[in-house]
Specification:
By secondary structure, the protein is of the alpha/beta class. About 30% of the residues lie in helices and about 25% in strands. It has a 6-stranded mixed beta sheet with strand order 1-6-5-4-2-3, with helices on one face. The radius of gyration is 23 Å and the shape is elongated.
Length: about 180
Amino acid sequence: MQTRSDLASKSFSRRLFARAAILGTVALTLGCATSKVYTERDAAFDTSAAKSYAWVTEDLILIQFGKNQPNLRTDENELLVRRAMERELEAKGLAKVDKTEADYLVAFSVGATIRYRIEGTDEGSLALAGPGQKQTKGTLNIYILDAKTKDEVWHGWTSKWLSKNDDPTEVADAAVHKVLAEFK
């Protein structure tokens, strides 16, 4: 037979779990909202005269640095980002040229943050819930350097929570477009 104290404790646990679920849903909704773009710019650098760019390196190695992330850091994904960047830079009137003739050198990096979503049980114990759902947040950084001095003159980045159903081409195109839209 359950005592009044046992019933009060279960009721409190359920209310606490319900509040946590509501807060979690709000946080997840905000996290899935449109991702924000952040930029840093060297205000002293005059971007109006620049007409061309080249990759820091033509080798497909930029995406290989850092912690191994086999689903994110692949040659195929690097090519997707490179193609998207080339389209966006061309749309801004910048021509791809040999490195020795370029006004800008461009590069990018990608990274991921992995977290596990854990939900409690009716008893409120997270330990009984089992393994959580894995969630991956991808971050794209784009770097633009003055080709003469090799100094970074602009840096933009954005992040997005990824799902297994995301189309890699669409994700790359959207992220590159959003970040480079801020490059002026």
